[in-house]
Amino acid sequence: MHSDDLTRPAHAPRVAGLVLAAGAGSRYGRPKALVVEATGEPWLVRAALALEAAGCDPILVVLGASGAEAESLLRAASDRFERPDRLRVVQAQDWAAGLSASLDAGLDRLQRDKPETDGDAVTAVALVPVDVPDLNAAIVRRLVDAVTPDTLRQAHFAGLPGHPVVIGREHWAPLRAALTGDTGARPYLVAHRVTAVPCDDLGTGLDVDEPSTA
């Protein structure tokens, strides 16, 4: 990883990264936060590295099921991060209630974090689930380019919605109020006409629900 990739230009909007990795992975057979590729790279670490390489700061990782083990994976890989101090673990206490609870925990942490100055305020958050192993920094960069507080964007692959989803801070409170069950941000994105950003040239965007599809 090159330090040039991590530099946020002066006056550029600050974008946080948010990795959702709290679920038990019932269809997969174990928490996806613990999945390690044959290469030895955990999905969790790969997602966080992609966000860091795209310039996201801070990077919040929401954990729940097997949270202590997942956090250990992150710690073990800390030397792979240019700025490990940007990583923040958020424990979703009610992760079993579904995806919405995990997303709410991450947004709550972002809203409670107070910047030292107005210029340090986070403009938007780039949201990714842990189970999209071909996520890369180029995809994230395309989504976070020139964001504003009212940005609402979603990566599309082969015409289908995928990740990242970028949510400007003006949407955080109303999105949290609308969250329910295991649907996550999807209903809110549809209702507010999220902007589709084609990313077919950068990856597949496929998420992995079962080991046979990895």
From TrEMBL:
Keywords per UniProt: Transferase
MobA-like NTP transferase domain residues: 17-192
Pfam families xref list: NTP_transf_3 (PF12804)
Molecular function, one GO term: nucleotidyltransferase activity
Source superkingdom: Bacteria
Database matches in InterPro entries: MobA-like_NTP_Trfase, Nucleotide-diphossugar_trans
Protein name: Nucleotidyltransferase family protein
Source organism per UniProt: Cryobacterium lactosi
